[in-house]
C-alpha cells in the first residue's frame, strides 16, 4: 500500500497538542473512580473511613504523597491524621475535578487537608474562599474561577448562576451525606445528577481553570519512571513502562482489559501484537503529555495503534493531519485509509477533493483501481469538476479501457452517468460515436441516440428532461431575466465579480414569468413598453435563448408552473384586460384551458 503521506518528506515531523486531552484524561479517571476500579491507594480520615483513589493522579497534586510514593504499596492506606471525613472527601473531589465546594464552616477543615497533603493550589483556593466569604453575603449560587495570570493566581467571580457545565468533568457529590459506605469500611463518592440543586449549606464553588493542565504537567515526569509503573507494554522489541490507571483513563481498550477480569489484569507485561513500537510509543507519549508527534514515516503506525487501542483523540489528530496534507497524489490513498478505519470525515473530504480535481486524479495509476460503484458515484455527482461533459466522458473512457475485457460489462452502467445530452451534435459525432463500443453496445448506443434527439429538437427538450440533461454545477446560480433599472442605482449596487452576462433576449421584457426546469429557464409572456407579448422562450446555458411555440394570448403579470409534460400559464393581463384563462404548453403545442364560473376547467386544443 502506498505511503499515507507521500507528498511529505519522510523526515518532516510535527508535534501537535490536543486541547481536549487534559479534560478527557480527568474524565477517564473520574469514570474509573465512580466505578471504584483500579484504585490503588486509600485515604483514611479521623473516623477510620477510607476513600479509594488512584495513586498516580493524587501524586500529580500532592507533594506529600509524591515524597512517599516509593513507600506506598499497592492498595495501601495512607492515614491522614485527624482530618475530618467530610473535608477529605471534598479534597478528593477537587483532585478529580478541579472544583471545590466549601462554606464558612468547612473551609478551615479543607485547608487543613490541603496543608497536610501539600496541595499548594488548593491552599490558595481556600484562602480565596475565606476572603470571598468575608467580603460578600454568601448565596447558594456564588461561583469563582481561579486562573493564573502573569505567574500569579487570581480569583474572578462568575456572575452567572451555577450550572452543570461549571463542573464539567466531575459533577461530584459535595456533602458527607453523599459518601456511601460499601460495607467494608471504604467509602465511595456518589455522583449528583444533572438536575441536582446547589446545596444550601455549600455556598461557594471555587473552580480552578488550570487544574487539568496542572495534572498533565505533573503526569509528564512519570512517563518513563519504571519505579512507579505497574504494567509494561511490549510492542515488537520495545518496552514502555506505564500505569494501568492512566492507560484505562485514556483508552476504552485498556479499560476493558484491566477492569473486566482478563488475564492481563495480573500480568506485569502486556504484549500488543500487530502494532509497531513507533505507533505504541507515540500514543503512550500522548497519554502522558497530550502531545502527538507525527511524520510521513510514522503516521501509518500511529493511526493503526490509535484505531486498535480506541484512542479517539489521537485518531482525530491523525485525521486533521491527513486533511491538511491532502493533495492530488495522496487523495486516493486517503480514501483507502478512510475506508479501513471508518473515518467518515476523511472519506467525505477525500470524495470532495477527488470530485474537484477529477481530471488530474484520473491520470493517477491508483484511479484505475477504483471499483465501479465508486466511479459511478463520482460521475453522477453535480459537483464533478469538469469544464464540459466531454471531460467526464474521457474520465469514464480511461477507466473502462484500462482493462476493457473485464470491464466491458460495466460500459452501459458507467456511461449512463455521462450527461451526453449536454454535448453538441458535433461533439457527439467527433468524440463519442467514434468509440467502437459506443456504437456496438446496446445501452451505450441508446444513450447516444437520446442525446442526438435532445440536441436536434430544442422545442421538445421540456419533455426529454432526465438526470442526464441537468447541468453540473458545484454552486447554485441565480438567473435574472429582463426587467428595468432604476436610474442612478443600477451601477452602484452591481458587483462585477459576482454577476456576468449570460445571453440576450430579442426584446426587453417586463411582467413576464419564469420557471426553472431541467437545465434551463423558461420565459413566458411579458410586455415591452406598453405592448403585451405572447412569446415563449427557453434559456439554456449551452445554447442560449431559443424561441418556442408562442402563447395564444399575450399576457403579463401572470403565473407559470411546470407540470409533468409541460407548463401551465395562469391569468395575467393584457393592457386593461384581465385574462381568466389558463394555457398549457406541451409537445402538441399550446392549448387553452377555459375557466368556467363554477371553478371547473376543460382543455381546448
Automatic annotation (TrEMBL):
SUPFAM superfamilies: Kelch motif (SSF117281), POZ domain (SSF54695). Residues 229-296 form the BTB domain. Keywords: Kelch repeat, Repeat. Pfam families: BACK, BTB. PROSITE patterns: BTB (PS50097). It comes from the Eukaryota. The keyword S-adenosyl-L-methionine does not apply. This is BTB domain-containing protein. It comes from Branchiostoma floridae (Florida lancelet). The lineage of its organism: Eukaryota, Metazoa, Chordata, Cephalochordata, Leptocardii.
Amino acid at each position: 500500500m502506498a505511503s499515507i503521506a507521500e507528498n511529505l518528506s519522510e523526515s518532516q515531523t510535527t508535534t501537535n497538542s490536543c486541547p481536549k486531552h487534559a479534560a478527557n484524561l480527568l474524565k477517564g479517571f473520574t469514570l474509573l473512580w465512580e466505578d471504584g476500579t483500579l484504585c490503588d491507594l486509600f485515604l483514611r480520615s479521623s473516623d477510620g473511613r477510607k476513600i479509594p483513589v488512584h495513586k498516580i493522579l493524587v501524586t500529580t497534586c500532592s507533594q506529600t504523597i509524591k515524597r512517599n510514593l516509593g513507600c506506598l504499596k499497592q492498595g495501601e492506606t495512607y492515614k491522614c491524621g485527624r482530618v475530618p471525613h467530610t473535608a477529605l472527601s471534598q479534597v478528593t473531589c477537587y483532585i478529580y475535578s478541579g472544583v471545590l465546594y466549601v462554606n464558612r464552616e468547612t473551609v478551615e477543615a479543607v485547608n487543613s487537608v490541603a496543608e497536610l497533603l501539600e496541595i499548594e493550589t488548593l491552599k490558595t483556593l481556600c484562602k480565596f474562599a475565606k476572603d470571598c466569604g468575608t467580603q460578600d453575603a454568601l448565596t447558594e449560587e456564588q461561583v469563582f474561577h481561579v486562573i493564573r495570570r502573569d505567574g500569579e493566581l487570581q480569583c474572578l467571580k462568575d456572575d452567572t448562576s451555577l450550572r452543570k457545565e461549571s463542573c464539567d468533568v466531575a459533577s461530584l457529590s459535595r456533602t458527607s451525606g453523599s459518601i456511601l459506605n460499601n460495607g467494608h469500611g471504604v467509602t465511595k463518592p456518589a455522583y449528583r445528577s444533572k438536575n441536582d440543586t446547589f446545596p444550601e449549606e455549600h455556598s461557594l464553588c471555587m473552580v480552578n481553570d488550570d487544574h487539568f493542565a496542572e495534572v498533565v504537567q505533573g503526569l509528564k515526569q512519570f512517563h518513563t519512571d519504571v519505579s512507579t509503573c505497574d504494567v509494561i507494554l511490549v510492542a515488537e522489541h520495545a518496552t514502555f513502562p506505564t500505569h494501568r490507571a492512566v492507560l484505562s483513563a485514556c483508552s476504552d481498550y485498556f479499560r476493558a482489559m484491566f477492569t473486566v477480569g482478563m488475564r492481563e489484569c495480573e500480568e506485569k507485561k502486556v504484549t500488543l501484537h500487530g502494532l509497531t513500537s513507533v505507533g505504541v510509543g507515540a500514543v503512550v507519549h500522548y497519554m502522558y503529555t497530550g502531545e502527538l508527534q507525527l511524520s510521513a514515516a510514522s503516521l501509518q503506525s500511529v493511526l493503526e495503534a490509535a484505531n486498535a487501542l480506541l484512542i479517539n483523540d489521537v485518531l482525530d489528530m491523525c485525521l486533521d493531519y491527513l486533511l491538511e496534507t491532502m493533495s492530488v497524489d495522496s487523495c486516493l490513498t486517503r480514501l483507502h485509509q478512510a475506508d479501513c478505519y471508518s473515518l467518515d470525515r476523511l472519506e467525505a473530504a477525500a470524495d470532495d477533493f477527488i470530485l474537484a480535481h477529477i481530471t488530474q486524479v484520473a491520470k493517477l495509476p491508483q484511479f484505475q483501481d477504483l471499483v465501479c460503484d465508486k466511479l459511478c458515484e463520482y460521475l453522477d455527482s453535480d459537483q464533478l469538476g469538469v469544464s464540459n461533459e466531454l471531460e467526464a466522458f474521457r474520465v469514464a473512457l480511461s477507466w473502462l479501457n484500462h482493462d476493457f475485457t473485464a470491464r466491458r460489462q460495466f460500459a452501459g452502467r458507467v456511461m449512463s452517468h455521462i450527461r451526453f445530452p449536454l454535448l453538441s451534435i458535433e461533439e457527439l459525432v467527433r468524440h463519442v460515436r467514434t468509440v467502437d463500443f459506443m456504437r456496438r453496445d446496446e445501452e451505450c448506443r441508446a444513450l447516444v441516440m437520446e442525446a442526438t434527439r435532445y440536441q436536434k429538437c430544442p422545442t421538445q427538450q421540456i419533455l426529454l428532461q432526465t438526470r442526464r440533461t441537468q447541468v453540473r454545477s458545484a454552486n447554485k446560480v441565480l438567473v435574472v431575466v429582463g426587467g428595468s433599472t432604476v436610474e442612478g442605482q443600477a451601477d452602484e449596487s452591481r458587483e462585477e465579480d459576482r454577476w456576468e452576462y449570460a445571453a440576450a433576449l430579442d426584446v426587453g421584457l417586463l411582467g413576464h414569468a419564469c420557471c426553472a426546469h431541467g437545465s434551463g429557464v423558461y420565459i413566458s409572456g411579458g410586455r415591452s413598453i406598453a405592448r403585451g407579448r405572447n412569446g415563449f422562450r427557453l434559456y439554456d446555458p449551452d445554447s442560449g435563448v431559443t424561441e418556442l411555440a408562442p402563447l395564444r394570448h399575450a399576457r403579463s403579470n401572470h403565473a407559470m408552473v411546470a407540470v409533468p409534460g409541460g407548463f401551465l400559464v395562469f391569468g395575467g393581463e393584457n393592457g386593461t384586460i384581465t385574462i381568466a384563462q389558463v394555457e398549457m404548453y406541451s409537445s402538441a403545442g399550446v392549448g387553452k384551458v377555459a375557466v368556467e364560473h363554477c371553478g371547473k376547467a376543460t382543455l381546448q386544443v
